[in-house]
């Protein structure tokens, strides 16, 4: 194993850190040496660059997970509760501007989602209910004018 679980300096004595490759996924949960893992997990690429960092509690993602590109720039932040997406998800362009932002509740996309052009102009405003398209979806040209409007009910375009 490249790195065994070690203690993080400055954290409580029970706070651990592990590489994702040293953990095992079974039945939707993450284990370390046959025990549900609790602690910080770091996922690295083949060049040992950090791809993502998050926290597991009793083998399930909990709290914020941050993903990085090969230059250590944040590409995505998302939040989890008991292993399911729960809270704000934000996807970033290379320059750090927001590409997309939306909300999850109990693993399902809900509420308003916004998609942006690289320029920062709004590209789409959409709504979700129970992980399905719902209501008015408005698509914009980069100059801010409306390109198209679609309406959804129960996940179906009407």
From TrEMBL:
Source organism per UniProt: Shewanella pneumatophori
Pfam families: MORN_2
Organism domain of life: Bacteria
Transmembrane region(s): none
InterPro entries the record matches: MORN_2 (IPR011652)
Official protein name in the record: Toxin-antitoxin system YwqK family antitoxin
